[in-house]
Design goal:
186 residues; alpha/beta; D-Maltodextrin-Binding Protein, domain 2; 2 domains; 5-stranded mixed sheet
Length: 186
């Protein structure tokens, strides 16, 4: 009887290890093939270069993310991807990100997209959807801020303010990193 209980306990522990490993593997799914995809605008070569640099940095620090950069033909395609995929991340120029957030100009057909900023520099913002996983956002920001200097990255201190649509708010995971809080890694 004691042996049977011990074997049952070992089997339960082994199952827990397998399931925990599968949860970690699923953490980054949502992009193509489960990878963390950073979309960029092919009409803005700078956004593509920034996306590649960020994907390389994420690949070194978070190899399990499978981070990679994907160039979309134009900003309208990025808006389409962002409006449909909950886990999409994009590197986009400030003015285009703001128009996407408001649903203005060329993005009227898609409508406003609830974006949040992970990090930014003087020209580009790394944005995701508002419902992007908080822990994943925290890990991305933490990884990118390990070496922010080459791209002059900062984490914006802009909490969500429903009355203000003039600036895209920071993601709660980014704000947690900025405030020195710990992630809620499960």
């Amino acid at each position: 009887m004691t042996r049977r209980r011990a074997l049952t306990g070992i089997a339960a522990f082994a199952a827990w290890i397998v399931l925990t490993g599968q949860q970690a593997a699923r953490r980054w799914q949502g992009g193509h093939g489960g990878d963390l995809v950073l979309h960029s605008n092919d009409q803005d070569l700078g956004s593509g270069e920034v996306a590649v640099a960020l994907a390389n940095q994420l690949g070194k620090i978070l190899p399990e993310s499978g981070a990679r950069a994907v160039r979309e033909p134009d900003a309208a395609r990025i808006a389409s991807v962002m409006s449909m995929q909950q886990s999409a991340v994009a590197v986009i120029a400030y003015d285009l990100a703001q128009e996407m957030y408001r649903g203005a100009a060329q993005f009227q057909a898609v409508g406003p997209i609830e974006l949040r900023v992970l990090v930014e520099n003087y020209k580009y913002q790394v944005v995701c959807r508002a419902e992007f996983d908080r822990n994943n956002a925290y890990l991305i920001v933490q990884a990118l801020m390990k070496d922010p200097e080459p791209l002059k990255l900062t984490v914006p201190d802009r909490p969500v303010d429903p009355a203000n649509r003039n600036g895209i708010p920071a993601h709660p995971g980014a704000l947690s990193f900025l405030n020195g809080e710990s992630p809620d890694i499960k």
